[in-house]
Design goal:
768 residues; alpha/beta; Phosphorylase Kinase, domain 1; Rossmann fold; Dimethylsulfoxide Reductase, domain 2; 7-stranded mixed beta sheet; 4-stranded parallel beta sheet; 29 strands; binds ligand MGD; binds iron/sulfur cluster; binds molybdenum atom
């Protein structure tokens, strides 16, 4: 299926006498960051297709990219604030909505303290400059310990492992797919997801190009995913056992005398103790638990050692597991001991143009991982990176006592669908004294809100993918100005969050958002002039602020980050081109280059990328080595008769794009994949309804019998279950599906990162 090149026409040719213009914009929907070419006729979007001139995506786009138009036009998308009184929604002005929040939220804080307000931050907020940058001052202003996000149902294990190894949660080495000879993918399906923690448009094309030049693809996945179908070797692993498999690779390499860190060797600390600690994990020991032959494990280890350039890449299937942090660490241990860390074709560190902590401060100096500085109230689960694990959100709301959460603020998140024991969280939200959501829909989560503040349409936002450009397979920078102006009654997302920050600080609902904005830019400028490694070290802050005029909001912050970043103009102090044909960066330059600027392929960054206390790659981080004992027990643990894993579809995006007809038409996708032998054993046939039960809940779903899953494994996509009362998404309600997280168990998680087990959940399956 070649949907990717050339894009899709979504409207007929423009009428002859209409005014037509073209705008370019990076797609904000997933991590691939594709360039879009948007045609507008009389200021209405008439067509969206891939931008062939985009320096990174070269015209690639997936079926979701063109739906920014449908999203913009969706009648269910909220366009004005809503207030709920006595269970009934009323449209409100912004002034009324902010006043309502002040009136109802402040007394809760006054009576019960700041921890009484919980916050949940969802995924689209990371793609939105406004929420990414201004969510922080809001959280600070709230001053609560109860901060939760989608990170602990996602990538936190990788961030934690990288913080230990390299000194930064976003210092994540990415697979250099474009130059490798062997790509080993564990628990990722980039043919459906377009890649994650590894930003690159057109993963399928890149994988095909790799194979065309003789490279090999190995996919480790309990399902024969689309990506596995393309693989030279598919290892159908038992869910949850990736850490064992990876440990056995290291054990084999040691046994064969093939440990060689290559060019990274001088910068690696603790190789010997790590190799010694992993030695007992022989292929023979782990094979029964992993469900892959010892011989196949050995041969993969040798293939990794023999390949001139090889890289192991692990994603959701490896992180949302009970050994997520260990598996994430082991991915990079394998890359390191095979000499592929920081080498072309191996696992490399991007050098981002803006915002990366590994481009600020002193190279090779860091203060170490900060985790477990405090714990959750009910279950004493440790925080990581300033957040508590979302597996404990429901109990923090429904368990009475001092410090109980009584009010929630959700921003760009749908935790009722996305997080474990969804049924309990749903019920808990219904008991809150007050809830505010910043969102675009009334969905499973926001229907519990008392006030909804609508974020504006993506087409009215400026865009620079600050987080994901730090994880890019090529160094690029691309800014898109808003395609359309805000509607008369709309507020920018940053202003919404800044206003909330002012309200919870007691500055009043009428306070001006610019106060927060000015504080933020002031602090960033102060940080830059104080950083002795910054090109503006020692300069006059006022003079820099003057040069940033007249921009405000996220764009002003971005301009500063770009100009003080590794390719920046240093506010005039740097003059030479930073890449062929690319002058030093400013936001003005990016505005002039709507297809982005290419800053070149990834280049080795060791040791300067490191921000660890030792200034070395700390392979032997103590909490990881200590966790190996628990892993050892997994090798001998009984295998549950059935476990549930997820899967993604190209036309879904987590829980929130099912209201677009173009993306949901066709046969139902929220089906339970069951292996034929299991179907027989459980008395299920194709099209029947199965009941799936776990400790935390149960659900019913239509069965699809398929040998794409390994026996003992069933698969159901997440992000569905839109049938609940009060949801206002007409299309999504019609194709409702079922919420797979009803059976995800909040008691199952990775103890190091607090990340939920969403893949490999023990379940019982039978006819409904
Ligand atoms: N079982 C299972 N569960 C999973 C996963 C899995 O693989 N299996 N995957 C997990 C992963 S990786 C993730 S990232 C999470 C996602 O978890 P969440 O972030 O909680 O969920 P999303 O479905 O992304 O919901 C996004 C919300 O943001 C709103 N929204 C969309 N655009 C905007 C905007 O521009 N501004 C604002 N303010 N709101 C907006 C949408 O209406 C929706 O309410 O789910 C996790 N849950
Ligand atoms: N179309 C689409 N694209 C998306 C999203 C979406 O919802 N839809 N969501 C976006 C988000 S927020 C994220 S985080 C990324 C995620 O991107 P990916 O990590 O590529 O996510 P998936 O496509 O769910 O692929 C995970 C694979 O892991 C397999 N798996 C399950 N359990 C295990 C296990 O124990 N071990 C191994 N080795 N494999 C296992 C599953 O069968 C599945 O094929 O996708 C992003 N892109
Ligand atoms: S792959 Fe991701 S970034 Fe590219 S068009 Fe699709 S949704 Fe947008
Ligand atoms: Mo995610």
């Amino acid at each position: 299926m070649r949907w990717q090149h050339g894009g899709m026409t979504i409207a007929e040719e423009a009428v002859a006498d209409a005014t037509t213009r073209t705008a370019y914009r990076t797609c904000p929907l997933c991590e691939a960051c594709c360039g879009l070419e948007i045609t507008l006729t009389d200021e209405r979007v008439t067509r969206i297709r891939g931008d062939r001139d985009d320096v990174f995506s070269h015209g690639f786009i997936c079926p979701k990219g063109s739906t920014l138009k449908q999203l913009h036009d969706d009648p269910d998308r909220l366009r004005s604030p809503r207030i709920k009184r006595d269970g009934v929604w009323h449209d409100a002005s912004w002034a009324e909505a902010f006043a309502e929040i002040e009136r109802r939220l402040l007394p809760i804080i006054e009576a019960h303290g700041r921890d009484a307000v919980g916050v949940y931050l969802g995924n689209p907020g990371v793609h939105s400059l406004g929420s990414l940058l201004y969510g922080k001052p809001l959280i600070k202003a709230l001053g609560t310990s109860n901060v939760y996000s989608a990170s602990t149902v996602d990538q936190r294990p990788k961030e934690l492992a990288c913080a230990h190894l390299f000194g930064g949660g976003l210092t994540v080495p990415v697979p250099d797919v474009d130059r490798t000879d062997l790509l080993v993918v564990l628990g990722a399906n980039p043919y459906a997801s377009n890649g994650s923690l590894a930003t690159a448009p057109d993963w399928p094309g890149r994988i095909e190009a790799m194979r065309a030049r003789g490279g090999r693809l190995v996919v480790v996945d309990p399902r024969r995913s689309r990506t596995a179908e393309e693989a030279d070797v598919h290892l159908a692993i038992r869910p949850g056992s990736d850490a064992l498999l990876l440990a056995a690779l290291v054990s084999t390499l040691a046994d064969e005398g093939r440990i060689d860190c290559g060019a990274a060797a001088p910068y690696v600390r603790g190789l010997e103790p790590v190799v010694a600690a992993l030695a007992p994990f022989t292929p023979e020991l782990v094979a029964p638990a992993v469900g892959v032959d010892a011989a196949a494990i050995r041969s993969l280890a040798l293939e990794l050692a023999d390949a001139p350039r090889a890289v192991v890449y692990g994603r959701i299937g490896t992180t949302t597991a009970a050994f997520g942090t260990l598996a994430s660490w082991l991915v990079d241990v394998v890359n390191t001991v095979t000499g592929n860390l920081d080498q072309p074709g191996g696992a490399m560190f991007p050098l981002a143009a803006a915002g990366a902590s590994n481009t600020r401060g002193t190279p090779r100096v860091g203060r170490g991982v900060r985790a477990a500085r405090r714990s959750s109230r009910v279950r004493s689960l440790p925080e990581t990176m300033g957040e508590l694990p979302v597996v404990c959100l429901a109990e923090e709301i429904d368990t009475p006592g001092d410090g109980q959460i009584r009010a929630m603020v959700t921003m760009a998140g749908n935790p009722v669908v996305s997080t474990p024991n969804a049924g309990r969280l749903d019920a808990a939200f219904a008991t809150l004294e007050f809830m505010v959501s910043v969102d675009i829909y009334v969905n499973e989560t926001t229907r519990h809100a008392d006030v909804i503040l609508p974020a504006p349409s993506a087409l009215t936002k400026g865009h620079y993918d600050l987080a994901f450009m730090q994880l890019s397979l090529r160094n690029v920078a691309n800014y898109s100005p808003p395609v359309l102006p805000l509607g008369p009654d709309e507020l920018e997302e940053w202003e919404i969050l800044a206003k909330l920050a002012l309200i919870v600080q007691g500055m009043g609902a009428a306070a001006d958002a610019s106060v927060v904005d000015d504080l933020m830019i002031g602090a960033l400028v102060a940080g830059a002039v104080a950083d002795e490694h910054s090109p503006v070290h020692g300069r006059d802050p006022e003079a820099l602020l003057a040069e940033l005029e007249p921009r405000r909001g996220p764009e002003r912050l971005l301009d500063l980050m770009l100009r003080t970043g590794p390719y920046g103009d240093g506010f005039g102090s740097i003059k030479d081109d930073v890449a062929p044909g690319v002058p030093p960066l400013t936001l003005d330059l990016l505005v002039d280059r709507p297809h982005g600027v290419d800053l070149g392929p990834l280049a080795p960054r060791l040791p300067d990328v490191l921000r660890t206390p030792s200034g070395l790659v700390e392979l032997d981080a103590e909490p990881l080595l200590a966790d190996l004992e628990r892993l050892r027990a997994l090798a001998e643990a009984p295998v549950p008769p059935a476990v549930l894993v997820g899967r993604r579809d190209l036309r879904s995006n987590n829980s929130w794009m099912h209201n677009l007809e173009v993306l949901v038409k066709g046969k139902p996708r929220c089906t339970l994949h069951v292996h034929p032998s299991d179907a027989e054993r459980w008395g299920l046939v194709d099209g029947a309804t199965a009941c799936v039960r776990s400790r935390s809940g149960q659900l019913e779903a239509p069965v699809e019998v398929t040998d794409a899953v390994r026996p003992g494994v069933v698969s159901l996509p997440h992000g569905w279950g839109h049938g609940a009362a009060g949801v206002e998404m007409e299309v999504a309600q019609r194709v409702a599906g079922v919420n797979s997280n009803l059976v995800a168990d909040e008691l199952l998680f990775d103890p190091l990162s607090g990340t939920a087990v969403l893949n490999g959940i023990p379940v019982e399956v039978g006819p409904a």
